[in-house]
Amino acid sequence: MELLHPRNPIDLDPLSHSWQCSWNRSGFCSAVCVEVPSETEAVQGTDMKLLCISCMKREEVTASTVVEWFYRPEGGKDEPIYEHRKMNHEFPSRFSGRIQWNGSKDMQDVSITVLNVTLNDSGIYTCNITREFEFEIHRPLFTSSRLIHLTVVEEAGEDFTSVISEIMMYILLVFLTLWLLIEMVYCYRKVSKAEEAAQENATDYLAIPSENKENCAVPVEE
């Protein structure tokens, strides 16, 4: 959900992005902000990064950014768990001591990491970003929100894509093995026929009488 403050006459909606490399005319690589959705499944006992990226179209404009993270369990209400307002502040909650700031210096990536996730950490996480742009004449506000539906499982499930990739790899290996065997048999038969033809020619030559062999010599012109 993207909201624009009534005081802001400028459309500042960002594009959907992640961090990518853009090559300029001088041949140098410059970072480009690209928003991507966060992962929505975590394995119990691991660290889970809740990705929240809000790119600015005009990075040269100075802006003050406030980030608020909320958690809502199934059937419950939103409760604040983390806030970044110049300083990081962790609210008392079930996540106390388990939240780590994972954002960038330019405040376009405002992600957090939940350490040692448990099954009870499943639920809806909300990332609210409020930016106040510092123009000479006015200071427009821009707000955006990201929702992450997180599910924590006991064990990692088998990735369907990786299973298909493994199957295709095995099929390719079998195909290449059969092709190699066919090529070996073909080459062996070809060499065998060549050897048999050479032996037949040698036998025929030996069967010719010696006087006929002399007659077979090609006369040399003087």
Rg measurement, Å: 36 Å
Helix and strand sequence: EEEEEEEEEEEEHH
The chain-level mean pLDDT equals 78
* N- and C-termini, Cα separation: 102 Å
Number of alpha- plus pi-helical segments: 2
- Main beta-sheet strand count, sense and barrel state: 7 strands, mixed
How would you describe the shape? elongated
The low-confidence parts are: 1-20, 22-26
Work out the helicity level: 10-25%
Structural class: alpha+beta
Percentage beta strand: 25-35%
Number of E strands: 12
As an assembly, this protein is single chain
Walk me through what this model shows.
This protein is an alpha+beta fold and 222 residues long. Helices cover 24% and strands 31% of the residues. It has 2 helices and 12 strands. The strands form 3 sheets. Strands 1, 4, 6, 7, 8, 11 and 12 form a 7-stranded mixed sheet that branches. Strand 2 (20-23) and strand 3 (29-32) form a beta hairpin. The model is unreliable at 1-20 and 22-26 (pLDDT under 50).
Fold topology:
Blueprint: E1 2-4, E2 20-23, E3 29-32, E4 41-43, E5 48-50, E6 63-72, E7 79-85, E8 87-90, E9 99-101, E10 112-114, E11 123-133, E12 141-153, H1 160-207, H2 210-215
Parallel strand pairs: 4-12
Antiparallel strand pairs: 1-12, 2-3, 5-10, 6-7, 6-11, 7-8, 9-10, 11-12
For the structure shown, list the relevant keywords.
222 residues; alpha+beta; 2 helices; 3-stranded antiparallel sheet; 7-stranded mixed sheet; single chain
Quick take:
The chain has 222 residues and is of the alpha+beta class. The chain has helices spanning 160-207, 210-215, and strands at residues 2-4, 20-23, 29-32, 41-43, 48-50, 63-72, 79-85, 87-90, 99-101, 112-114, 123-133, 141-153.
